[in-house]
Amino acid sequence: MTDHAIFHRPLGANPPAGYDQAIFGMGCYWGVERLFWQQNGIWSTEVGFAGGEVQNPTYDQVKQGDTGHAEVVRVIYDSSLISYDHLLQLFWENHDPTQGDRQGNDEGSQYRSLIVTFTDMQTSAAEASKIDYDNRLAVQGFGKITTQIIEGGIPFWPAHEAHQQYLEKNPDGYCGLKGTGVEASMPNPDPI
């Protein structure tokens, strides 16, 4: 099993006791992974695929657009240091969740906006934040949010090792991450 290029922990590890996990799809997963690994309280990140029909798909299969998967990042975090609400704020502010099957110039269902939740608390927080951010976007003239929220911790299929922590290994690599400029509601301060 390969280790994370920054945290030096095994990729694919289950969350340690007392830690939580989250999955977010925000377009091309390279920049999304870097966004999350830079946050205090993150234990590990891993890029991969979720929300589709094919088991253990390859990047090339997903890129063809017929597996139904989205490019996602699995985040393992210490909720005593960073809240799920804070992760949601980063999610909403760092991509455009109104674009359907695309992010900027990246087109296809693999680039859709997606949240996978693992607990009832995550589901209710994600749904509430979606309603709130949809209202904030509407005031600024944006269309409706197209973000899909999937409950129940559906399968996460890790991407090839070469794609893990890609922007750490390739600092000049592609990053299409770009928000709308509309702020999400501020979460309660993270626990200290």
UniProtKB/TrEMBL annotation:
Which leading EC class covers this enzyme?
oxidoreductase
Q: Does the keyword Oxidoreductase apply?
A: yes
Q: Which EC number(s) are documented for this chain? A: 1.8.4.11
| Domain of life, per lineage | Bacteria
Q: What Gene Ontology cellular-component terms does the record carry?
A: cytoplasm
An MF annotation (GO) of this entry: L-methionine:thioredoxin-disulfide S-oxidoreductase activity
A Pfam family name for this chain? Answer: PMSR
The active site consists of 28
Q: Which residue ranges does the record assign to the Peptide methionine sulphoxide reductase MsrA domain?
A: 21-175
* GO biological process terms held by the UniProt record: cellular response to oxidative stress
Key words of the record: Oxidoreductase
Record's catalysed reaction(s): [thioredoxin]-disulfide + L-methionine + H2O = L-methionine (S)-S-oxide + [thioredoxin]-dithiol; L-methionyl-[protein] + [thioredoxin]-disulfide + H2O = L-methionyl-(S)-S-oxide-[protein] + [thioredoxin]-dithiol
Q: Which InterPro entries match?
A: Met_Sox_Rdtase_MsrA_dom, Met_Sox_Rdtase_MsrA_sf, MsrA_MetSO_reductase
Job description of the protein: Has an important function as a repair enzyme for proteins that have been inactivated by oxidation. Catalyzes the reversible oxidation-reduction of methionine sulfoxide in proteins to methionine.
Stored NCBIfam families: msrA (TIGR00401)
Q: Which PANTHER family match?
A: MITOCHONDRIAL PEPTIDE METHIONINE SULFOXIDE REDUCTASE (PTHR42799)
Q: Which family does it belong to?
A: Belongs to the MsrA Met sulfoxide reductase family.
The molecule here is called Peptide methionine sulfoxide reductase MsrA
Classification from the root reads: Bacteria, Pseudomonadati, Pseudomonadota, Alphaproteobacteria, Rhodobacterales
